């Protein structure tokens, strides 16, 4: 079984300040982890992915995330928020779930607001 | 040259009607999905097809029936629409259906189809 928890449903930051969106996961097998972004009235777009290579992953638009196995976390960060970063962010985990099956689970999303 | 395209983008209909949403991907991916996003933005997987074969069928009313005529298409037909079916439905595809170091299970999403049932 696996699960993913996004610890904050809403994060608000001022433009130019750092962004931290938190994600914790649980998985019985080695997971792959992703962050997706959804701008208003748009589809989801991949920001970055972790697939058992480097634990610090760089994505598009200046975002990065660090896989910490000991903490079962995959938090998303950006040094300086931009107005265009205002969107909904989803953490996703996929892993083998036994008996030849794979499971993909979305977090419930974190809405990021950026204050000018 | 849209990667994953779904039609229609908006659909407004009466309760009890039957409607379909179509999805096509031109990425050569093997796996396609339907997700439902509710008003709280929560994404729930409904179905997944791998090479035209159903591999995920979550607890979804049997009024919802997916159809995959070929691996580039996955359509969603909904019978006897109810108010609670109002949502945004997203189609997605991935290269394969298996996690791994290649990241080949990265999802590419369509822009969504907003269904409103009156």
Short note summarizing the structure:
The complex is a heterodimer of chains A (116) and B (118). With 116 residues, chain A is mainly β.
Describe the structure.
The complex is a heterodimer of chains A (116) and B (118). Chain A is built from no helices and twelve strands. Chain A is globular and about 50 Å long. Chain A has 116 residues and is an all-beta fold. In chain A, strands 2, 5, 6, 10, 11 and 12 form a six-stranded mixed beta sheet that branches. In chain A, strands 3-9-8-7 form a four-stranded antiparallel beta sheet, with no helix packed on it. A two-stranded antiparallel ribbon of chain A has the order 1-4. Chain A has strands spanning 2-6, 10-14, 19-21, 23-27, 32-38, 44-50, 56-58, 64-68, 73-78, 87-98, 101-106, 110-115. Chain A has a single domain (2-115), classed as Immunoglobulins (Immunoglobulin-like), CATH 2.60.40. Chain A starts with a strand and ends with a strand. Chain B is mostly beta strands and 118 residues long. Chain B has one domain (4-99, 107-117): Immunoglobulin-like (Sandwich). Chain B is 0% helix and 53% strand. Chain B has strands spanning 4-7, 10-13, 19-25, 31-37, 43-50, 53-57, 64-70, 73-78, 87-94, 108-109, 113-117. In chain B, the strands form two sheets. In chain B, strands 2, 4, 5, 6, 9, 10 and 11 form a seven-stranded mixed beta sheet that branches. A four-stranded antiparallel beta sheet of chain B has the order 1-3-8-7, with no helix packed on it. In chain B, strand 5 (43-50) and strand 6 (53-57) form a beta hairpin. Chain B is globular, with a radius of gyration of 14 Å. Classes of the chains: A mainly beta (116), B mainly beta (118). At the A-B interface, strand 5, strand 6, strand 10 and strand 11 of A face strand 5 and strand 10 of B.
